[in-house]
Write a structure and sequence with these properties.
714 residues, mainly beta, Ferric Hydroxamate Uptake Protein, Chain A, domain 1, Maltoporin, Chain A, 2 domains, 22-stranded antiparallel beta barrel, five-stranded mixed sheet
Length: 714
C-alpha cells in the first residue's frame, strides 16, 4: 500500500546542529531541489547550474531526529530515488488486525504473495522468489534497521518477527534492494523499529479472538538529552484453526541510542525469542477442501513441532563525515537453538555474526548532482546439526551429526547521476562471494561449494512532476543455495547445486494526488538454474530434494492504488477534515513458466496463483472511526507440480473490519472478522515434479474468525 506522504517541502538534512536551533543546509541532490516548494523557475534550471540552498530548517533542542533510524517520511523520500518497485507500509496499516504474521503487515503491497501456514509461519514470495519453498524462507533477505536478520547462508525464518515491534516496513522488490547489498530475485525487506524519540511514553495492547487466540503486548520509550531508548515485549498463545497447530511465543526487543553530538549517533539492539509451535502438516487436496481442520496423521503421531529460542545483539553507528557524506557501520551476533521433531528430531544450534559498512555521498560532480552509495557486508556462521530417531516426538538414537560453516561477503555500489533536476541515470553493481562447507561426523560426508557472482544494474528515474515518477531498470540477480537446500536427506551428501541467476527488465510508475496514489510495475526475468524444492511425498513437505531447473521465465504486473473517491459524505464543514470512502487495492499478476525445458516444455511453474487481488472499501471519519469490507481473491487455480497435472482451487474470501483510532488519541480498538462465509480454501502448497492425486501437498486456510483488540498509551 502506498503511504500518503507529500513530497512537497522535502528538506531532510543529515547534519543537524545542536547548538543552533536554525541552520541553512545545502541541498544534497537536485532531486531534493526538484521536490521542494521552490518557484517553477528554479525547477527549470540547467543541471549544470550551481547547487541552490534549501529553505531554513528549524531543529529545536530535544526534537532532533535519529541519525540511525529514519522517520517514515524520510525513508519514503529516499525510496523515490530507486528506479524500481519499492513500498513502505507504516504500523498504522496493520494496527487494525491481529498483527501476528508478515501477511498482516504486507497484505496490500502488490507483488508480495504472503500466505499463513500455522502459528506465525508464513509462505512468502516476491516476484516468484522461493515459490517452491514451503518451509523456511529463501530468495528474500531480511534486515532490521538495515542490519542483516537473515542467516549467513541466505536462509531465514519468521518466528523472530513480531509485527507489534516495528513502526514501518520497507519492501525492495528484486534488484531494488541493491542499496542494502541484497542480490536475490525477491529483493529485501527492512523492518524498522521505533526509538525513544519517535515513540515516547507507555503503551499496552490486548488482543483476543477465535481459535483461542490471546496476546498481551507492552512498550515503553523515551529520551533524555542525547540518550533515548525503546523496549517492547509480547506474549501470544493460540490454539490454532487446525488440529495440532497450537503454539505460544514470547518475544522481547529493545534499542538504545546515544547521539553524542549532531554528527555521531550509535544504537544498540537486543532481541530475544522463545517459540513453541505444533505443526499440523500438509494434507491431500480432498482433505484440505472437505476437512480443513484435519492435521496430517503422521504429524500427530510423531508430534511434529518447531521450537525456537534465539537471542540477537547488534549495533549500528552513523557518522556525518561532512555535510555531503554519511557513514554507517555496525556489527551483529545471532544465537539460535532449534529443536524440531519431524520425521527425525532435529537439534540444531546456530551462531551467526557479521559486520557491515555503508557510505552515502551526495554532492555535485562537474556541475551535476550525484548520489553515491558504497557498502560492504560480511557474515559468517555455523550450524551444529544433530538428528535423532523420533520416538513419538522424543529423541531416540543419534543418526546424524555435522558442523556446517558459511561465509558470505558482498561489495556493492549504486550511483544516481542527475542529468537534469528531473532525470537521473542509475548504475549499480555487486560482487558476491559465498562459501558453504560441511564437516561430517555421522550419517553424512564432508563437502562444500563456493560461489562468486558479479551482478550489474542500470536504470533511470524521471520526475514527470513533483509527485509523479516514471522509472525503469535492467539488473542481474544471483543467489547461492542455502544449507537446507544443499542437504539431500535421501542420500546424506551435500548436493552439488549451481547458483540461481537471472536478468530482469522492469518499467513502472508511482505517484500521488491529494485523493489518489498509485504504484505500477511491469517486469520480466530470464532465470537460469532456478532452485526448486521438490516434495518427495515421504517427509511431508518439511524436507525436500532441491534441484536446478533449466531456463525459466518470471514475468508479471504489480499494481496498487489508494483512492479517496467520495469526500464529505456525512461531515461537510468547510476548511475542516471530512469523512470519506477509500478504495485500496493490490493486484499481482504472475506468469511464471518453463522456457523450452527438455522435460516440462513450457509448462507453468507451480506454487503461486497467476492472479491475486486484495481490495478493501473503507469508510473513514475524521474522529478516527473506520469500517468496511475487504476481499482476498484468487480467481483461478494454480498447479502444484511441474507436470501440471494437479492444481488447487479458486477462492474468494469476504472479510470486514471496523475500529476507532483517533488522531493523537490515547485509546484505540479494532474488530477484524475474516472469512465470513467460512469457505474452505487452500492457502499454501508444497510443490513437486509430478504429483499423485492424493499426495499431501496442501495447507488449508483458516475458517471463519473474529479478532478484537485495544491499545492504550500513557
Amino acid at each position: 500500500m502506498l503511504v500518503p506522504l507529500t513530497r512537497a517541502g522535502r528538506s531532510r538534512n543529515i547534519a543537524m546542529s545542536q547548538s543552533s536551533p536554525r541552520r541553512c543546509v545545502r541541498t544534497l541532490t537536485l532531486a531534493f531541489l526538484a521536490s521542494t516548494a521552490l518557484p517553477a523557475a528554479a525547477l527549470a534550471q540547467s543541471a549544470a547550474a550551481p547547487v541552490a540552498e534549501l529553505p531554513v530548517i528549524s531543529v529545536t533542542e530535544g526534537q532532533r531526529g535519529s541519525l540511525t533510524v529514519l522517520s517514515p517520511r524520510e525513508a519514503w523520500e529516499e525510496l523515490q530515488l530507486i528506479p524500481g518497485g519499492v513500498a513502505l507500509v507504516t504500523a498504522d496499516e496493520w494496527a487494525g488486525t491481529p498483527a501476528t504474521t508478515i501477511k498482516d503487515m504486507l497484505d496490500y503491497v502488490p507483488g508480495v504473495f504472503a500466505q499463513p501456514k500455522w502459528g506465525e509461519d508464513t509462505r512468502l514470495s516476491i516476484r516468484g522468489s522461493g515459490i517452491s519453498r514451503n518451509a523456511h524462507l529463501r530468495g528474500i533477505l531480511l534486515f532490521q534497521d538495515g542490519v542483516p536478520l537473515s542467516f549467513t547462508d541466505g536462509g531465514g525464518d519468521f518466528q523472530e518477527i513480531d509485527p507489534t515491534a516495528y513502526q514501518y516496513v520497507e519492501v525492495f522488490k528484486g534488484s531494488n534492494g541493491f542499496q542494502f547489498g541484497a542480490n536475490t530475485l525477491g529483493g529485501a525487506i527492512n523492518f524498522v523499529t521505533p526509538t525513544g524519540r519517535s515513540t515516547p511514553g507507555i503503551g499496552v495492547r490486548v488482543d483476543a479472538g477465535s481459535f483461542d487466540f490471546y496476546r498481551l503486548q507492552a512498550n515503553v520509550g523515551g529520551s533524555n538529552g542525547a540518550l533515548d531508548g525503546y523496549i517492547t515485549g509480547s506474549y501470544l498463545s493460540q490454539g490454532g484453526f487446525r488440529d495440532h497447530s497450537s503454539g505460544t511465543n514470547m518475544r522481547g526487543s529493545a534499542n538504545f541510542g546515544w547521539q553524542m553530538n549532531d554528527r555521531i549517533e550509535t544504537r544498540f539492539y537486543f532481541n530475544a525469542t522463545d517459540v513453541q509451535q505444533d505443526i499440523p502438516g500438509a494434507v491431500s487436496k480432498t482433505v484440505a477442501l472437505n476437512s480443513p481442520k484435519s492435521a496430517n496423521p503422521t504429524n500427530v503421531l510423531l508430534d511434529y513441532e518447531r521450537n525456537v529460542q534465539a537471542i540477537r545483539v547488534a549495533n549500528k553507528t552513523a557518522f556525518i563525515l561532512a555535510d555531503t557524506t554519511k557513514l554507517e557501520v555496525g556489527a551483529y551476533y545471532n544465537n539460535k537453538s532449534l529443536v524440531h521433531p519431524i520425521f527425525q528430531v532435529l537439534d540444531y544450534g546456530y551462531e551467526d555474526y557479521g559486520a557491515f559498512g555503508r557510505v552515502v555521498d551526495e554532492r555535485t560532480i562537474g556541475g551535476f548532482a550525484n548520489r553515491l552509495v558504497v557498502g560492504v557486508n560480511y557474515g559468517t556462521g555455523t550450524v551444529d546439526a544433530q538428528r535423532y530417531t523420533s520416538v513419538f516426538g522424543n529423541s531416540g538414537a543419534l543418526v546424524y551429526a555435522s558442523t556446517d560453516e558459511a561465509t558470505n561477503w558482498n561489495l556493492y555500489a549504486e550511483d544516481n547521476l542527475y542529468l537534469t533536476p528531473a532525470f537521473s541515470l542509475v548504475a549499480g553493481m555487486q560482487f558476491v562471494n559465498a562459501s558453504l562447507g560441511r564437516i561430517a561426523y555421522l550419517g553424512t560426508v564432508s563437502g562444500g561449494n563456493d560461489y562468486q557472482m558479479f551482478l550489474p544494474k542500470g536504470g533511470f528515474v524521471w520526475e514527470l512532476a513533483p509527485s509523479a515518477q516514471l522509472y525503469g531498470n535492467v539488473s542481474r540477480s544471483g543467489e547461492a543455495p542455502t544449507f537446507s537446500e544443499l542437504t539431500n536427506f535421501a542420500v546424506g551428501d551435500i548436493a552439488n547445486l549451481k547458483a540461481q541467476t537471472g536478468t530482469t527488465v522492469e518499467m513502472g510508475s508511482r505517484g500521488q494526488t491529494p485523493t489518489f496514489s498509485w504504484d505500477v510495475s511491469l517486469y520480466r526475468s530470464w532465470i537460469d538454474n532456478e532452485l526448486q524444492c521438490q516434495d518427495t511425498g515421504v517427509l511431508l513437505g518439511l524436507s525436500c530434494t532441491v534441484v536446478n531447473l533449466s531456463s525459466t521465465i518470471h514475468q508479471g504486473v504489480e499494481a496498487g492504488a489508494n483512492w479517496n473517491f467520495f469526500q464529505g459524505l456525512l461531515v461537510k464543514q468547510p476548511n475542516q477534515p471530512q469523512d470519506g470512502l477509500w478504495l485500496n487495492f493490490a493486484y499481482t499478476y504472475s506468469d511464471f513458466y518453463f522456457d523450452n525445458d527438455p522435460v516440462w516444455g513450457n509448462n507453468q511453474l507451480p506454487g503461486i496463483p497467476r492472479h491475486y487481488l486484495r481490495a478493501e472499501l473503507l469508510y473513514k471519519h475524521p474522529s478516527g472511526f473506520y469500517a468496511g469490507p475487504n476481499v482476498e481473491w484468487v480467481p483461478t487455480a494454480y498447479y502444484v507440480d511441474d507436470a501440471n497435472t494437479l492444481n488447487t482451487s479458486p477462492y474468494a474470501l469476504l472479510n470486514f473490519k471496523m475500529g476507532y483510532e483517533p488522531p493523537n488519541g490515547r485509546f484505540s480498538f479494532y474488530v477484524d472478522a475474516r472469512n465470513l462465509f467460512n469457505q474452505a480454501y487452500i492457502a499454501s502448497v508444497n510443490v513437486t515434479g509430478a504429483a499423485s492425486q492424493n499426495q499431501a501437498l496442501f495447507e488449508p486456510g483458516n475458517g471463519r474468525a473474529v479478532y478484537v483488540g485495544t491499545k492504550m498509551t500513557f
